[in-house]
């Protein structure tokens, strides 16, 4: 049965020039968290796609049935759409979306011209969450991690709880991506909030150090928490992402 998509969680596509950009949201999140970045990139003339990852933006029951293979398939569909319209694709992503930007940067070097992971995760340092992964007595859901935003009055459209079944797939994808970092050769702009209550901020320097890329840079955000694409530094993120793409699209 077709799942109803939450208002604001719809995927987006903007046709523009021959430079493609994929913008991905994170685990339990929706396209609402990255739509402002996608629109800012479209305003600069780029061709932009923001996929709704399988199981996201519908229901927690739907999310509980989804896996990393499904999320990868969602991204691949939009990469195919972009590659058919552009001469090269850049990949920006928030949290798990940032993790997938690194994953695809390693596995699709033929297509991905540059990578912009934003508060990406390749480790969580969260034993309580890790204990749930193979626990047969684990609850079906645990408290959510959404709306970690410093700016007043800004809310993320996100599930209120985390379904436990997809955690195994999510953890496996993180560890896989960690092992792939050294295989990445594309330019990378790592964007990391100094204060993040969902993903340890140490991910940023760790990712930077492990990358195989020669052209790599770490941008630290001083005024945003985890959902930085909706937070006080959202304009800075858009500005630096546009500059990075222009510098490497030629």
TrEMBL record:
Q: Name the positions where substrate binds.
A: 27, 96
Please list the residue ranges annotated as the AB hydrolase-1 domain: 21-238
A Pfam cross-reference name: Abhydrolase_6
Instruction: Work out whether the entry's keyword set contains Chaperone.
Output: no
Q: Which SUPFAM superfamilies match?
A: alpha/beta-Hydrolases
Which GO molecular function annotations are given, in alphabetical order?
carboxylic ester hydrolase activity
Record's keyword terms, sorted? Hydrolase, Plasmid
Report the InterPro entries cross-referenced here. Answer: AB_hydrolase_1, AB_hydrolase_fold, Esterase_lipase, MAG_DAG_Lipase
What is this protein called in UniProt? Alpha/beta fold hydrolase
- Source organism: Rubrobacter radiotolerans (Arthrobacter radiotolerans)
Tell me the classification of the organism that encodes this protein.
Answer: Bacteria, Bacillati, Actinomycetota, Rubrobacteria, Rubrobacterales
């Amino acid at each position: 049965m077709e799942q109803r998509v939450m208002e604001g969680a719809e995927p987006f596509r903007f046709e523009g020039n021959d430079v493609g950009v994929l913008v991905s949201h994170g685990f339990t999140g929706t396209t609402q968290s990255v739509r402002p970045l996608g629109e800012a990139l479209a305003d600069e003339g780029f061709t932009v796609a923001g996929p709704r990852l399988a199981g996201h933006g519908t229901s927690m029951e739907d999310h509980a049935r989804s896996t990393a293979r499904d999320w990868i398939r969602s991204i691949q569909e939009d990469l195919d759409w972009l590659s058919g319209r552009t001469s090269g694709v850049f990949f920006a992503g928030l949290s798990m979306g940032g993790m997938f930007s690194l994953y695809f940067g390693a596995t699709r070097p033929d297509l991905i011209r540059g990578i912009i992971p934003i508060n990406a995760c390749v480790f969580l340092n969260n034993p309580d969450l890790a204990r749930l992964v193979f626990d047969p007595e684990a609850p079906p859901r645990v408290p959510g991690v959404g709306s970690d935003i410093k700016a007043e009055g800004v809310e993320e459209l996100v599930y209120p709880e985390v379904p436990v079944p997809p955690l195994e797939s999510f953890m496996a994808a993180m560890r896989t991506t960690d092992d792939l970092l050294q295989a990445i050769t594309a330019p990378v702009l790592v964007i990391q909030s100094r204060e993040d209550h969902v993903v340890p901020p140490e991910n940023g320097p760790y990712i930077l150090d492990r990358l195989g890329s020669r052209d790599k840079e770490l941008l630290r955000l001083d005024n945003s928490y985890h959902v930085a694409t909706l937070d006080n530094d959202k304009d800075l993120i858009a500005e630096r992402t546009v500059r990075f793409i222009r510098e490497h699209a030629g």
